[in-house]
Structure formats: C-alpha cells, structure tokens
Amino acid sequence: MSSSARIPKTNAARLLEAAGIPFELIPYQVDPENLAAEHIATQLGEPIGQVFKTLVLRGDRNGLFVCVMPGDMEVDLKVAASLSGNKSAAMIHMKELLPETGYIRGGCSPIGMKKPLPTFIHESALLYDYIYVSAGVRGLQFKINPEALIDFINAHIYPL
To answer: Has residue 2 been placed in a domain?
Structure first.
C-alpha cells in the first residue's frame, strides 16, 4: 500500500485495508476529454492489457452485473448476457452509473459499489502478477494481485 500522505484514500481502499488485501494506490494525470484505458496505461507506463476497466451492464432477466476487462477489449454483449444468466444485456446509461454504483464514469471500481453485483473478470487477468483497476475516483488506480481481487469481490473468471 502506498505510504504517500498526498494520495487520498478512497472507500474502496479502506475496504481492501480492512480485509488485509495488499495493494498500491497509483495516481495518474486525468484528461477529462480522454477517460479511455489507453490514456491511463500510457500515464502508468504499463501495457494496456494490464489496465482493466469496470463496465456495468443490465441484463434483461437478472438486472445489473459487472464486467472487468482489459482496456484494449470491447465487451461482447452476447457473451456477457450468457455468463450472467441473461438472454440479452446492454451497458447502463451514464446517468445511471452514480445512483446505481456510487461511482462516476472514469472512476468506477469493482470494489465497494453501493451493493454487491455479480462480477465477471476476464481470464487474462490471471496472466499477471498484478493488474490495475480503478480505485474509485478519476486519477487513481489500484495495483493489485488479480487473484486477491477476484477472491475479495467474489468474482467469476470468464473467457472471451
């Protein structure tokens, strides 16, 4: 975990600390015009495949669920629907993100949402000793072991 007093601690970071999960808080420069994972990966000096984005979807049968996937991939809505026990799925509207999760676009963490949602993490996360996911605010990422993250949020691994 980072010892820098200048890095704000997020609710998600407090949850990880309370559970004894090791992590680092890694700040990056936010560009409000470019919230893409590619920008974050460049800022961190890491491969895009190691920087994961958190997407919130709504299924036609089971409601909201989360897909955590490499920044250079697009979610396959048919696969996502099938994984989550739905017939179809779609990304939720941006205006729904904050009320449903407690997070804003560009700062949505798979940790500490308002209520636990079924979460699916792309299998490529297991290729790395650590991955990056949002720490719950724009400009801050968790550097975390993917297995620790998967266990902590009770996520399911999914193939492409």
So the answer is: no
